[in-house]
Every structure is written in structure tokens, then in C-alpha cells.
């Protein structure tokens, strides 16, 4: 049985505060892959120092994309089975846009916006005892600021960052059009991934120009609801709360 390690569901309005965790869990549910969810509060426990990661037999694998490649090779799990080569290429590019750009816009909106930071701090660090509750969030925010700067997006003004995010969302809305799913009538990995981001942008009560941009696309919101129903319908029974020692 695969063990899926993800953050606890600590942010109201989304199944998980991490879009990468939602993406992987949704993909496993859609593909009907039996797994157990382990709530893990310490990304350092993962082989890449990040969540999500999985344990499968004797192996620990990190990174949502690498995990999905691995499951395809090892277990034949392929949500994109119905896609043509061209559609697979489009899906590949969609994933890069979401994971390598929109992801950073979302991080900016949560960690750098002062009002949202209060919610983010509570979500990730709310359980820490004093004085760690003072020290750790401050350090983590400093590291996040440095990561945003190193990635490049942190060098832009907030206005520019949100403009980039709005363009990504507009591209998604155009690609989806009036289809139920990104590549027609069957949900694929792209749908799991877009759902993961949309539900994290539009779901929580974290106001931002990014959320405003998402709310302008009715077709994306309908897609989020459709995928939310599928996500709930394909729920797996066991969930185990766990905090591994660092
Ligand atoms: N490329 C990785 C990214 C994973 C990632 O960035 N996870 C974040 C949460 S969304 C994390 O664990 N951050 C904690 C840290 O960097 O210490 C994937 O697709 O899984």
C-alpha cells in the first residue's frame, strides 16, 4: 500500500494548503490507486525536504511530478492514457506554467501580503509552542522571501506579480473553453493539477488580486466545482495523523 505524505488539511476552503499535495492526492484518487494518507507537518522528513512524498514498499520518492512518472512506470498509472501526443505536450506545458510560475504567484499572495501572512502563519505554525511560535515563522518567512527573490518573481512589484498570475489564469480559461475537462469529456492529470491550484487560489478566505482574477473566470470556477465533486466521490477511507520527529 502506498503511503502518501502530505500537510494536514489546515486551511479552510481547500483540501490541503499545498497545491502539490492536492494535485497528487487528486491524481491518486482519480486513478483509483489504493493509498493511505499520512499527515506530516515536517517537509524535512521527505527525501527532497519537501511535501508531498510517497513511500512505496522500500522506497521513498519526493516531487509530485517524479512520483507520477514513477507510478506510471512501476504500476502503469496513467491518467493521460486517452490523450494524443500533441495533447500530452500541451499538458506538459500546462504543468510547467502552473508548477513553475503560478505556484510562485500563489506563494507571494500568501506569504508576502501582510493580511494573508497572518492566516498563513497560523495555518503552518499555529501548533508551535512559545517561543518557537515567534522564532520559526519569522525565519520561515525570511527564507520564503529569499526563495522568491532567487526564483526571480520576488524582484517584481506586487502589481507585476499579480499581472503575471492573471495571465496564467486567462490562458487556462481559454484552453478550457466550454469543455467539461481540459481535454474533453474525460478528466486527466491536467484537470487534477488545475483543480489543485484553483481550489487553493479561490477556495480559502485569502483575498488577493490573484483570487479576484480567478473569480472572473466562470468556466474555471465551474471546473473547480466539478473536480471538487470528483475528488470527494473518490475519497479513500483511511487517514492517519502523524508528526514525524525532525
Ligand atoms: N516540485 C515539488 C515542489 C514541492 C514543494 O515545493 N512543496 C512545498 C509545499 S507546496 C514544501 O514542502 N515546502 C516546504 C519547504 O520548502 O521547506 C513537487 O512538485 O512536489
Automatic annotation (TrEMBL):
SUPFAM superfamilies the UniProt entry points to: GST C-terminal domain-like (SSF47616), Thioredoxin-like (SSF52833)
GO cellular component: cytoplasm
Every Metaxin glutathione S-transferase domain range: 166-227
Domain Thioredoxin-like fold, chain residue ranges per copy: 19-116
Domain of life of the native organism: Bacteria
Residues in coiled coil: none
Stored Pfam families: GST_C_6, GST_N_4
Protein name: Glutathione S-transferase
Organism: Parvibaculum lavamentivorans (strain DS-1 / DSM 13023 / NCIMB 13966)
